[in-house]
Amino acid sequence: MRVTAGKFKGRVLIENKYEHIRPTADVVKQAIFNKIAFQISGAVVLDLFCGTGALGIEAISRGAKEVIFVDKDFRSVALTKQNLSKLGVNAEVYKGDCLNALKYLKVQNKIFDIIILDPPYKSNLYKVCVDEIYKLNLLSNDGIIICEMNKEDSFDFSPFKIIDEKKYGIKKVCYLKKDE
User: Fold this and answer.
1) What is the number of domains present in the chain?
2) Strand partners, 92
3) Domain containing 154: what range?
4) Is the peptide bond before 119 cis (omega within 30 degrees of 0)?
5) Which helix (H) or strand (E) holds 140?
6) Is 61 within the bounds of a domain?
7) What CA–CA distance (Å, rounded) separates 27 from 111?
8) Beta partners for residue 160, in sequence order
9) In a domain, 138, yes or no
10) Of 167, 163, 166, residue with least CA distance to 175
């Protein structure tokens, strides 16, 4: 597992050693960030269900201004902190339930340009999180939500609209924006 581009390009991250984490393959990570390349510089990013932290770290490497990492599992939080430390990066990492974390971030007046949403496959958390993001108005007007999911899954993401969708083996990535 490597950083694919930016100032940390080629740096190796600590490998996932836990079964509960499903890391994004480097080729998929690179495709995601190439797709949003012009939105990363200076962006405020939320890596929800961060796992190893690899997606948020990729955003940092490519010029994001701020990345906040959230996961409810203490092992994921520890692994993310280890990967950030290995790169010499300071970032906020929260251990907590996704909905409580979103409410906390609202209280902190956070607005995100990019929200990475990668909950466990087959969970009902996609729609629940998207609804909460909308309700709390956590996405900037031109912001994007990136949902990584099983390719067989389909969700009604309204009031957001799917602007693109790409399949990679057993997974797909959906890109959401506010529906004007």
Assistant:
1) 1
2) 68
3) 26-178
4) no
5) strand 139-150
6) yes
7) 29
8) 178
9) yes
10) 163
**Gap between the terminal Cα atoms of the chain:** 37
Helix-helix angle 74-87:54-61, to 10 degrees: 30
CATH code for position 113: 3.40.50.150
What's 146's DSSP letter?
E
Tokens of 69: 């990492």
Tokens 């390009």 belong to which residue? Answer: 9
- In terms of DSSP bridges, do strands 112-117 and 44-48 run parallel, antiparallel, or are they unpaired? parallel
In a domain? residue 13: no
For the beta carbon of residue 90, count every other beta carbon within 10 angstroms.
7
Asked whether residue 35 is domain-assigned, the answer is yes
Cα distance between residue 102 and residue 67, in whole Å:
14
Among 20-24, 29-33, 63-67, 86-90, the least confident range = 20-24
Q: How confident is the model at residue 59 (pLDDT cuts 50, 70, 90)?
A: very high
Residue 160 main-chain phi, psi, to 5 deg: -95, 160
Tally of CB atoms within 10 A around 34: 11
Phi and psi at 81, nearest 5°, equal -65, -40
The backbone torsions φ and ψ at residue 101, rounded to the nearest 5 degrees and listed phi first, read -65, -45
* Closest CA relative to residue 175, chosen from 165, 31, 140: 165
Helix (H) or strand (E) holding 162: strand 160-168
Q: What is the pLDDT of residues 63-77, one digit of tens each?
A: 999 999 999 999 999
